[in-house]
Design goal:
The chain is of the alpha/beta class and about 300 residues long. The protein contains twelve helices and nine strands. It has a single domain, classed as Alpha-Beta Barrel (TIM Barrel), CATH 3.20.20. It has an eight-stranded parallel beta barrel with strand order 2-3-4-5-6-7-8-9, surrounded by nine helices. Strand 5, helix 6 and strand 6 form a beta-alpha-beta unit. The mean pLDDT is about 90. It binds zinc ion.
Length: about 300
Amino acid sequence: MSLHNLKKILGEARRHKYGILASPVFNFDSAEALLSAAEEKDSPIIIMISDPMQKKYGYFNFQCLIGPLLEMAKGSPVPVVLHLDHGSGYENIMRYIEAGLTSVMISGDRDLDKNMEDAKKIVCAAHKYDVTVEGEVGLIEGEGGLEGTADRASSGEDIKKSYTDPHEAKAFVEYTGVDALAVSVGTSHGYFKSAPSIDFGLISILSRIPDVSLVVHGASGLEVSDYREMVKRGIIKFNYYTGLINAASQEARSCLCSNGEVSFTECNWRSLKAIKEKAKWLMDIFGSSGKAIRK
Ligand SMILES: [Zn+2]
């Protein structure tokens, strides 16, 4: 079976020093685009349902989407994690767990004590289902779990104020027992107003916290050398969405400018192909190509 929680997939990536692409899907087509990219690259993949996206668009009952996604994942030759992105609220997150997701994120609260208590409660419940949990310490600017918009973009200076404190992160991991930790090291959800500056030294310090895999959100738009350095320093899971959906949007725009020569069907197909090709490129950059484990 190809459906896994985060533990084995991220553990393997930590041992062999590569990163894994994690991206939200919003329908079967977008899931298919990511999954086929992973299969062509023989790479593990983390497919996410975004809680904020479900709430914002409200056009799809997530339970209708999860059933077929589970079947797609189980039938895939590569390891797949079905993960909840930016979940909030105990009952709400439990709905996703009971629906069959293998991993969940609980968005961080700005109050560290509340953040710890909320995360610990989810970890206790989730682990009984063999579901892994991603917590968050430090504020990652922008709107999590959604595509970015220019007016929500952050400047490099804004981002620096909310970097993850290593002492808080260590205490959080020890207290809650989370399997993965989203950290603020210079990235931001959505677009950047100015080129981001990644604090690589901070990543190295955070990577010394035992028994947890580090995650960056808002990974779109960085230099290739940044991704490689982040992997080298200990980032394992890359939440990347804006860049993928931009690739699709650009392709759709060029179809719409074709004076009606391109049908909606072809426009849709080309846009999804753009997501797939970008995902394949990222798998090469993160180093996960050829790393699918089948045990
Ligand atoms: Zn996020």
